[in-house]
Amino acid sequence: MTLFKKPVSVKGALLLLLLPAGVGLMAIAWLVHGLLLERMSREFVESRLKDEVVFLEHHIRQAEGQIDMLQTGDYFEEVFHHAFAIQSPSQTVISPQSWHPLLGPLLQSGEQQGIEVHNAKVPDLPSDILAYQKSFFVKDTPITVIVSEDMGALQNSQAELHAWTAIVSILLIFLLVGVIWFGINLSMRPVVSLQAALKRLQSGEISRIDADAPEEFQPLVQQLNQLLDSLDQRLERSREALANLSHSVKTPIAAVRQVLEDTSRPLDESLRHEMGSRLSDIDRQLEAEMRRSRFAGPQVGKSAYPVKQARDLLWMLGRLYPEKSFELSTSLTEEFRWPIEEHDLNEILGNLLDNAGKWSKGCVELSLEQRSGLAQIVVTDDGSGVSESDQVHLGQRGRRLDEQTPGHGLGLAIVREIVARYGGETCFSNGSKGGLKVLIEISI
Questions:
Q1: pLDDT score, position 205
Q2: Which of the four pLDDT bands, split at 50, 70 and 90, describes residue 406?
Q3: pLDDT of residue 369
Q4: Is the pLDDT assigned to residue 68 strictly greater than 50?
Q5: Which has the higher per-residue pLDDT, 77 or 17?
Q6: In what side-by-side order are the strands of the sheet with 92-95?
Q7: Other C-beta atoms lying within 10 Å of the C-beta of residue 60
Q8: CA angle in degrees (0–180, nearest 5) for 83-84-86
Q9: The CATH fold of domain 306-443
Q10: Which secondary structure element, helix H or strand E, spans residue 319, and what is its range?
């Protein structure tokens, strides 16, 4: 059994996407801040320690390596707030003396390097220190100097600053939530106005949607209005067809009824022929109006495959007129679509090809192309053609230029009506082979 979940609203989807992203980015920024703060603090302290080692080295060289002659002691501790250790082959000086358990073991390495000590288990002494050690020679006497600083106080300051950064980040997150909420509500105002317009449309207050929508919603509003236009056109066509049908069949029905009700006249052959003629008129008008009622006109989401439909029609007409040749020329593929309702395209192509098949001598050509946003349909035949004076009458409902050929004079009229509903144009001219050329252009 398939379970359907309620669709997530746009507002909910945006909040679900933006809030975790904002919180995650803020958390990453906070972590990076902590790492950078620790690195900068260490580099700053290590730079100070290097300078103080250079200071001690200078004094030791001035004393020619005599460590006991240095006047450092309390002055050095009070000015620089650092502990130091100086070692020569004959003497070791550590100040303050209480740091001996920490600095004594560090003197064993004679390299120039920064040293970190973490979690030292020495009572009454710092657990974390940063030291810098340098070894040099004074008159062939090796000297090792170490200057160190208690990192505990600095780490406490860093932790406090990092905590305040976290508090500010949390406040910024709440501010971000407010900004996102405000931005989403501001962005969704056009949707609210569109919803209100739809309600007014449903209640009959307006006939078209005229909401002041942003650029992203303009295509939606245009498509909805186009759909409403299409529905109105279909309704108008249905009413027009009903009125035409009622007006057209009223007289033939009245004539047939009069004949049937007149008992004084026998139902001879002439009356039978007259009744049959009247019923044929009714049948012809019913067929014409039913075909007109099926004209769809432009509809949103409807499309047709012109090449495939054309080939199907050409095959069928080839069987209907076996003595004539029907040819198709096009650069379109079978998968190519036109935004025309399938039945309408069938009516256009079918009527044009059938008309050309009736009047041609041996060949009918159909061309399908698309150029500059226009769908082009060209049908030519090699028949006797139509004079320019009579071409203006082609496509008029019920108008036939030759009464000898079977038909009702509706085919080209139906074509012109369908094309007009798509905003297209129908042009008649003489073809290169002497017959009639019909050019149809529809904007797509």
A1: 75
A2: very low
A3: 94
A4: yes
A5: 17
A6: 92-95, 83-87, 141-150, 129-138, 113-117
A7: 22
A8: 160
A9: Heat Shock Protein 90 (3.30.565)
A10: helix 306-320
Collapse the DSSP code of 444 into the 3-class scheme (helix H, G, I; strand E, B; otherwise coil) and give the result: coil
Measured CA to CA in angstroms, residue 85 lies from 57, 94, 123, 142 at distances of 12, 4, 19, 14
Q: Say what the pLDDT of residue 327 is.
A: 93
The answer to whether 338 and 419 are in contact (CB under 8 A) is: no
Report the distance separating Cα 48 and Cα 131, nearest Å: 10
Q: Quick one: angle between helices 411-421 and 342-359, nearest 10?
A: 150
Pairing, β 425-430 against β 363-371:
unpaired
- Are the folds of 13-156 and 306-443 the same? no
Q: With contact defined as beta carbons under 8 Å apart, do 364 and 325 qualify?
A: yes
What mean pLDDT is predicted for residues 210-223? 75
Tokens of 437: 């050329």
Place of tokens 């980040």: 169
Q: Are strands 425-430 and 436-443 parallel, antiparallel or unpaired?
A: antiparallel
Domain map (residue ranges) of the chain: 13-156, 215-293, 306-443
Measured distance CA(299)–CA(306) in Å, rounded: 17
Burial class (CB in 10 A: 0-12, 13-18, 19+), 442: buried
| 37's tokens | 């703060």
Helix, strand, coil percentages in the chain from 3-state DSSP, rounded to 5: 55, 15, 30
CA distance 31 to 34: 5
| Residue 271 pLDDT greater than 80, yes or no | no
Question: Can you say whether residue 198 is alpha, beta or left, with left for phi > 0 and alpha for psi between -120 and 50 degrees?
Answer: alpha
| Per-residue pLDDT at 363 | 92
Burial class (CB in 10 A: 0-12, 13-18, 19+), 275: middle
pLDDT band with cut points at 50, 70 and 90 for residue 1: very low
pLDDT digits (tens, 9 = 90+) for 86-122: 888 888 888 777 788 877 777 776 566 778 777 777 7
Contacts of the segment 23-29: beta carbons below 8 A, 24+ positions apart = 23/173, 26/169, 26/172, 26/173, 26/176, 27/169, 29/169
The model's pTM? 0.43
Residue 403 scores a pLDDT above 50: no
Q: What string of DSSP letters covers 103-169?
A: HTGGGG--S-EEEEE-S---TTS-S-EEEEEEEEEETTEEEEEEEEEEHHHHHHHHHHHHHHHHHHH
DSSP track, 165-211 = HHHHHHHHHHHHHHHHHHHHHHHTHHHHHHHHHHHHHHHTS-SS---
CATH number given to 13-156 = 3.30.450
